[in-house]
Amino acid sequence: MTTCTEFAVFKVAPENMARVIELSLAIFNEMNTPQTVITSHQVLQNTTKTDELCWHLTWVNKEVAATTTQQWPTFASTQEFQTLVGKNLYYGHFVKTD
């Protein structure tokens, strides 16, 4: 089964950046409970636009990604995360093509 890669880019005020990074890691942990659905993750800050933060996630597969992201509102850390993110700039799931 092919893994699925997610990219999400957020606009975050500099004073909220550290907390948003903490919440991002908490959200990944919450998504991986009770079983691992995200096999690797990176939280990246844009080098030229320091108010942009990116998630690069590797999901077990696209079905798990779709099912888990539908549960977004139920994760404990998402509400605070959304209040600190100024804008969702980009969001998408990708799979390898042959």
In short:
By secondary structure, this protein is of the alpha+beta class. The protein is built from three helices and four strands, in the order βαββααβ. It has one domain: Alpha-Beta Plaits (2-Layer Sandwich).
Write up what this structure looks like.
With 98 residues, the protein is an alpha+beta fold. 32% of the residues lie in helices and 37% in strands. It has three helices and four strands; from the N terminus they run βαββααβ. It has a four-stranded antiparallel β-sheet with strand order 2-3-1-4. A hairpin with a 6-residue loop joins strand 2 and strand 3. The longest helix is centred in the first third of the chain and has 15 residues, at 17-31. The two termini are 13 Å apart. The model has no long low-confidence stretch (mean pLDDT 96).
The coarse overall form would be globular
Question: Under the CATH scheme, which architecture would be assigned?
Answer: 2-Layer Sandwich
Largest sheet: 4 strands, antiparallel
CATH domain fold name: Alpha-Beta Plaits
β-strand number: 4
Quick check: average pLDDT?
96
Q: Number of helical segments?
A: 3
Structural class: alpha+beta
Helix content: 25-40%
* Share of β-strand residues: 35-45%
The CATH class, by name, is Alpha Beta
Strand order of the largest sheet: 2-3-1-4
Distance between the termini: 13 Å
> In total, how many domains does the architecture comprise?
1
H/E topology pattern: EHEEHHE
Radius of gyration: 13 Å
Uncertain segments are none
